[in-house]
Amino acid sequence: MTTTDGERPMTTDDGDASGADTMTLTEHLAELRVRIIRSALAVAIGMVLIIAFYNQVLEFLVQPYVDLCTRKPADFCDPDLFVFSPTEGLSTRVRVGLYGGIVAALPVILWQVWRFIVPALNQKEKKWAVPIVSVSVLLFLAGGALAYFTIGQALEFLISWAGAEVGQVFSVQSYVSLIGLMIFAFGLGFMLPVFVFGLQALGVVTPRRLLKSWRIALVAIAVISAVITPSGDPVTMGMLGLPMVALYFLAILLGWLVVRRRPADT
Predict the structure, then answer these.
(1) Is 231 helix (H, G, I), strand (E, B) or coil?
(2) Is residue 74 one of the residues assigned to a domain?
(3) Which stretches of the chain drop beneath a pLDDT of 50?
(4) Structural domain tally of the chain?
């Protein structure tokens, strides 16, 4: 919520606004810096923990590829991953740590984002903080889990298009990059309902309008799936797009349940 002169109400760390004080642009930027620093520290702590268990994490990430090579003929793919430069092993370890650190720090990051935008909301809207952050984390983890369990199908599709006479030798860095980006793509895609629900809860758009725009939504979801899917294959795009469609309509239903008593929706 902003004042008439464009300044933002001063808030305490527990989110209570003070009518006597306001935040200037400089103070607003200082608050943003604090939120970024806290998020970065959470990522750094998560990164250290992931790197400490790097071997176990890497084995977990590689398992879908190993399973694929195990159930396929011996000449289909090589379950071993390789490094092709002296620094690739170190850079892969750092990359795994960074990806894992972001996932581990996700609750803190989302909470800091919410705490930054809370002063712009009224007291009734602030009550959604814990539910929205919790659901966002759960949806991201659900999307990441789906990516993990479908990476094998995506790799099978991609390898089959390489040609029968082409041997498959992958670097550990390229594999980690692919599965890491897929986890983030699916995780962010699964968070779409939170955005849709938030727009309805804030009164920006009505459930009726979203439902009438379902054709546009389907096209938008198809485009988003194509853009954010790292592998770019239709199998993975479908595995991401179909759940996003279901979650879109679920978000409309939940939004309708929340705002159905508002005069604008009756």
Answers:
(1) coil
(2) yes
(3) 1-21, 264-266
(4) 1
CA distances from 233 to 31, 240, 247, 256 (A): 42, 11, 22, 35
User: CA of 61: how far to CAs of 64, 86, 173, 183, 262, in Å?
Assistant: 7, 22, 12, 11, 47
Residues 6+ apart with CB under 8 A from 154: 182, 231, 233, 235, 236
Quote the domain boundaries for residue 62: 25-191
In a domain, 73, yes or no: yes
Output the CA–CA distances (angstroms, integers) from residue 168 to 32, 97, 136, 265, in the order listed: 46, 26, 37, 56
- Please state at what angle helix 25-52 crosses helix 106-117, rounded to 10 degrees: 170
Q: What is the largest CA-CA distance in the chain?
A: 74
> Within 13 Å of residue 39, how many CA atoms lie on the same side as its CB?
18
The predicted-structure confidence for 170-187, as pLDDT tens digits, reads as follows 889 999 998 998 899 899
What pTM was computed for the model?
0.78
Handedness of CA 145, 148, 150, 154 (dihedral sign): positive
Q: Does 226 map to a domain? A: no
